[in-house]
Amino acid sequence: MTSTTDIIQSIGKGSIRAIARALSKVENGSSDSTDILDKLFSRQQGFTIGITGPPGAGKSTLVNRMITRYRKTDNSVGVIAVDPSSPFTGGALLGDRIRMQSHASDPKVFIRSMGSRGHLGGLSGATRDASCVLSAAGYSPVIIETVGVGQAEVEVADLADITLLVLVPGLGDDVQSMKAGIMEIGDIIVLNKADRNGIEQLESYVKASLEYMPPGLKRPDVVRISAVNGDGLEDLWDAIDRLVAAQTVESRISHSAVTTLSEILKENGLLFFEKLLEIEYNGRKEAEELILAGQLSPYAIGKKLLERAERIFEHNGSK
Ligand SMILES: Nc1nc2c(ncn2[C@@H]2O[C@H](COP(=O)(O)OP(=O)(O)OP(=O)(O)O)[C@@H](O)[C@H]2O)c(=O)[nH]1
Ligand SMILES: [Mg+2]
To answer: Collapsing DSSP states into helix, strand and coil, what is residue 70?
Structure first.
């Protein structure tokens, strides 16, 4: 199994090996990954659920519950475990922790840990592409678990069709210090560990914070659960189902088309200008040295590269 066509055909037949192969290719940004994604993009049928929140909030425990829930209706479930803190080991720990749980031997559950590796678009680009592969392979939902509350998580929110922000009692300063905007990344704010003390305070705090959301933005649902003992999960599933029902395959694809195109423009732009940098200055390192030596500013270099690009377009007869 080597050619893109073979891989695409095998994915169509549900070959786990082909899916794993395609995932490695997109994760590493290998040269044929674009062709694979090109063929798969419009085949995406399912929906994606992003789950984010601080370390230890119970995200994986919730993912496990969610897998059980969707397996009851015979959905195939994909899970991408993202760990922004380890770009090279690819969040292996995270994935292992999930894997150890009850679904590891179920052939209709595909769990993958994700690192940014060679992908031009970094971790979020790699996650976006992996999610495209799994969704086109028939997994629905594709669940994306990301640790933390920062830029990487906002990017996940942008990527997923539905986003859950998981908070827990006792975060104290962590929650207090979260940027106000963080509350806006979740379609649903899940208050987990409701079996613990402090859940009341957390709920009051979260609801009070939501009062300050800018007008016009949709207020997220707030649902209390205990992922460990199962309390509140039915309410959470209802909240998710309502959001899913408000979307269509077309609305999801069109959202994905807009965000993916915009990221690909950035990624390609970077490639293009890195090449020009190579031509004009022997690459990024030498350009940086010129800047550090005080000979050129980054602005002068940027301007020079744009001028160079314009000359190329003129030479090729731009429209
Ligand atoms: N008391 C209680 N503990 C819970 C609940 N949900 C999860 N836990 C526990 O919290 C700990 C962390 O759970 P995980 O599911 O690994 O949390 P996570 O958010 O995936 O953690 P990272 O991936 O490391 O960020 C485990 O010991 C869970 O058993 C809950 O509802 N109540
Ligand atoms: Mg986890």
So the answer is: helix
